[in-house]
Design goal:
Elements (H helix, E strand, L loop, with lengths): L1 E8 L7 H10 L8 E6 L2 E7 L12 E2 L4 E9 L2 H8 L11 H11 L9 E9 L4 E6 L8 E4 L3 E5 L2 H6 L9 H10 L13 E2 L4 E6 L2 E7 L13 H19 L6 E4 L4 H14 L5 E7 L14 H10 L2 E7 L2 H14 L9 H11 L5 E3 L4 H5 L10 H7 L13 H27 L4 E3 L5 H7 L15 H10 L16 H7 L1 H9 L2 H6 L2 H11 L2 H5 L2 H14 L7 H6 L1
Parallel strand pairs: 13-14, 13-16, 14-15, 16-17
Antiparallel strand pairs: 1-3, 1-9, 2-3, 4-5, 5-6, 6-7, 7-11, 8-9, 8-10, 11-12
Length: 567
């Protein structure tokens, strides 16, 4: 897990060395364990390293015996199998997973990405052919941003590297920003910066002699119709698939922990991991909770009872991390200022704090992202929600197969949009800001091939989503109570905002950025809306974007929300 960046000068000129240095500095938090650079002709590559596999020998940029260079962010989980298969024909110099990408390219040419199992964003330069390849994994687990004009193609793990290198302006597209205000994230390849795009999930760009020659895509899910399969057979296959994905995702030369919410996905990860380790080492788990009382007297977002039950059954040490109003006041300005791609997902608060705690002891964290999308866990997947879903989300960036059911089509839109452009940006940025790698065992090509092709009846059963996964968990870890009513990981931002309503009303209504986003009637209604937790929650995206904007124009983040908005 690392930070990568670079530039291709289309006129054949040598890259500006100072610009590459600035890009590298901007990505320092992503790779605290080392840095490297490479230039050849019109191409320059930079890298900052978080050492996970082959810490002593996996330095980057990595250059093979044929002069091909690569900078890579991610993990290739089948690297052992690749190396075993290609050792006879490729001269391996390291034990790193990075080098297996070069070995596959050596054997398969441009078809090499189809043999990768993992999360990745990389730039590979073949100097002999004058060929630059940029690629990103099918789910978009690892980010890659690009800025392109007639003079250059620049790319980096985060937009800030493009800004610092002088390859993109920080100008903001207000139309896209309003999309974030309405949906919490921007769709497709668009970002809020006109000069910066996301390389789409699964995309592979190929340039030769400074000219783009192809753009191909590796799809995350199969276009085939659902398989016909008996429930007992499906459960047996699921058991094998979960065991396999966990084994490869735990390949690491450093320790790892688990983000445990007490829900189905993280409980599944804990159970499989516990069975594989067999108590040889106590698993480190981290769970967040919120100490705000709900309207019915229960604590909001407090799943510690379930998390503790899972941790105890799996012989794990569970570190309980409180997230409260003071975190909201002091951490939010820092988080918003750090985020280049402004995902306004309120789960960003507990994710950031959990990462800051876990990074003190770990370099790798296993996370449950992808379980809801692949096994159909969201309430909107139930038929009564489909009409609302069609009105709220555009399927434009999801390739639709005529063989899919309606449920699969809804899932496909989330896999193409919500997953890479909200959940995974949030996860990557929050964790990498603390030098922490996040691994997502559900977002695996083998898991996706199985889960997405399940018949609807094994995904939805009555009021239960993720029916097959819940059934498996109930059989293997009944302490998780997978069929209980879903509580959801609801962050009580509405309560926190209402508690600070007076300060927020005064600062937001006088903030120039907010005035440009809202109509006069919307602006005048803010004080009343902020005073009630239910309506205050609806103003969350506005508050977050106001803080995000202030973080872009003020060099040092403020110590609290009020100071940030008044800056």
């Amino acid at each position: 897990m690392c930070g990568i960046g670079g530039v291709l000068m289309k006129n054949g000129a040598a890259p500006d060395g100072a610009a590459l240095v600035e890009m590298q500095k901007a990505l320092g938090k992503r790779g605290p364990d080392g840095a490297g650079s490479y230039t050849s002709g019109a191409v320059g590559l930079i890298h900052t390293r978080l050492a996970i596999i082959d810490p002593s020998g996996g330095h980057q940029p990595l250059i093979d015996s044929k002069g091909r260079a690569i900078v890579f962010n991610g993990e290739i989980y089948n690297y052992i199998e690749i190396k075993r298969a290609l050792t006879a024909r490729y001269d391996f110099k390291t034990n790193s997973d990075t080098e297996t990408i070069l070995a596959l390219y050596d054997k398969y040419g441009l078809d090499f990405v189809n043999h990768l199992r993992g999360m990745y964003a990389f730039a590979l330069y073949d100097a002999a052919l004058g060929r630059l390849i940029l690629a990103r994994d099918p789910f978009g687990i690892k980010p890659l941003y690009i800025s392109e004009n007639a003079q250059f193609l620049a790319f980096a793990s985060e937009p800030k590297a493009l800004f610092h290198g002088g390859f993109a302006a920080t100008d903001i597209d207000m139309k896209t920003l309003r999309q974030v205000l309405a949906r919490n994230y921007s769709q497709g390849s668009y970002t809020v910066y006109p000069d910066v795009e996301r390389l789409p999930a699964g995309a592979m760009l190929v340039y030769e002699a400074g000219v783009r020659v192809s753009c191909t895509y590796r799809e995350a899910v199969s276009p085939l119709r659902p398989q016909e399969i008996d429930e007992d057979v499906a459960l047996a296959q699921l058991d094998s698939i979960l065991d396999d994905t966990m084994r490869v995702h735990c390949r690491s030369d450093v320790g790892y922990g688990v983000f445990l919410s007490g829900g189905v996905d993280s409980s599944t990860i804990m159970n499989v991991l516990a069975n594989q380790t067999l108590g040889s080492d106590r698993i480190k788990a981290y769970t967040a909770y919120f100490d705000v009382e709900g309207t019915e007297g229960g604590a909001i977002g407090d799943e510690r009872t379930y998390a503790r039950a899972v941790a105890d059954s799996c012989y794990a040490d569970c570190h309980e991390v409180p997230v409260g109003v003071e975190d909201f006041r002091t951490l939010l300005p820092k988080i918003a200022a750090y985020m280049d791609d402004p995902v306004a997902d309120y789960a960003i608060l507990p994710t950031w704090k959990l990462a800051s705690i876990a990074a003190k002891d770990q370099k790798v964290i296993l996370c449950g992202e992808g379980g809801d999308e692949l096994f159909a866990g969201y309430g909107r997947y139930r038929p009564r929600w489909w009409k609302d879903w069609r009105n709220a989300f555009s399927p434009s960036s999801a390739v639709m197969s005529p063989h899919w059911t309606r449920l699969q089509r809804v899932q496909a839109v989330d896999i193409a949009n919500y997953l890479p452009n909200d959940l995974l940006i949030k996860l990557d940025t929050c964790l990498m800001a603390h030098g922490l790698e996040g691994r997502t065992p559900f977002l695996d090509s083998d898991v996706a091939a199985f889960a997405f092709s399940l018949p609807d009846s094994l995904k939805l059963r009555g009021k239960d989503g993720k029916y097959l996964l819940k059934t498996w968990l109930h059989q293997n870890l009944p302490e998780a109570q997978p069929f209980r009513k879903k509580q959801g990981f609801t962050v009580p931002v509405g309560h926190w905002m209402a508690e600070d309503a007076a300060v927020l009303s005064a600062t937001l209504t006088n903030n120039v950025f907010v005035k440009n986003l809202l109509t006069s009637s919307e602006l005048s209604s803010l004080p009343a809306r902020l005073s009630d937790p239910k309506t205050a929650k609806e103003c969350w995206s506005l508050l977050y974007l106001a803080l995000w904007h202030m973080g872009k124009i003020v060099d040092v983040p403020a110590h609290n929300i009020a100071d940030a908005l008044a800056a």
